[in-house]
Design a protein that fits this description.
The protein is mostly helical and 259 residues long. It has helices spanning 11-40, 46-94, 102-123, 126-150, 155-179, 184-208, 216-233, 246-257. It starts with 10 loop residues before the first helix and ends with a helix.
Length: 259
């Protein structure tokens, strides 16, 4: 199972760690720049500002690219949730058209499935989010097999089987997206390039004067917020940017009103 090391870190810890990394990089760069200025005088290198600007531009480009990736995946997860709700709703309604005892068994399993999905959304346990729905899917598929073995194929049976297949497909999509967050290589590259960029900013401040720029703390905070926002978008059920489960809750209420 591919889980990014960034996603295993709680968001508050990630925010503090990122802020410290950026601040330390700025401070180290500043001290090297001050040492350079005290040793050789003010550095009149016309390319220094250009190098710092180019590096910050590269960091901004990578952050924008990663943010776009995370935002797109966030929207995809929301769309998959809608697809899953529609498939479950259709399966529950079409189960009314099949004979007993398969009708009652299908309704019971589907109600358990929806309750399980809501419980998993609260707990955000990826291992159970994969294993437990698969167990209920197997139970539901057993009802499909038994129903078809008990009598001839009909249009209503085919419609129900189609809805069950859509439920399974939606679960597979959701599981695949949860298993593949933003790759660790991208996160590592972002942090390394950010460290280099912040060190260059600090170095430029150090060679320019004896005091640290007052803009450095706000710069560190801004970069930290962007990193945390991207990480939050990449976690479907954690943090502040959670995918609303209202559609699934509405479906649970609808099922309860029509047992």
């Amino acid at each position: 199972m591919s889980i990014s090391w960034v996603n295993s870190i709680p968001l508050p810890v990630l925010a503090i760690a990122t802020l410290l990394i950026v601040l330390v990089s700025l401070e180290l760069g500043f001290r090297v720049g001050r040492w350079r200025r005290e040793r050789s005088g003010t550095e009149h290198d016309s390319t220094l500002g250009g190098v710092v600007g180019a590096t910050l531009g590269l960091v901004a480009f990578l952050l924008a690219f990663t943010f776009g990736m995370a935002a797109s995946r966030f929207e995809d997860r929301r769309q998959v949730l809608v697809e899953e709700v529609n498939a479950l709703d259709a399966a529950y309604l079409r189960a009314d058209l099949i004979e007993e005892p398969y009708r009652s068994n299908a309704h019971r399993i589907l109600r358990e499935y929806v309750a399980l999905r809501l419980d998993e959304a609260r707990n955000n346990d990826l291992a159970q989010d994969i294993e437990r729905p698969e167990q209920l899917q197997k139970e539901l598929w057993k009802q499909v097999v038994a129903m078809n073995m008990a009598g001839p194929a009909t249009t209503t049976k085919a419609l129900f089987v189609e809805s069950v297949n859509q439920v399974i497909e939606a679960q597979a999509k959701r599981t695949d997206m949860a298993r593949h967050p933003i790759p660790s290589t991208i996160w590592l590259g972002l942090y390394l390039i950010t460290i280099v960029a912040m060190a260059k900013v600090g170095y430029q401040s150090g060679v320019s004067g004896p005091r640290r720029s007052t803009a450095m703390p706000s710069l560190a905070l801004t970069f930290t917020l962007v990193f945390v926002l991207i990480a939050d978008l990449d976690r479907p059920l954690q943090g502040l940017l959670k995918i609303s489960q209202q559609a699934m809750m509405d479906l649970q209420r609808k099922m309860a009103d029509n047992p």
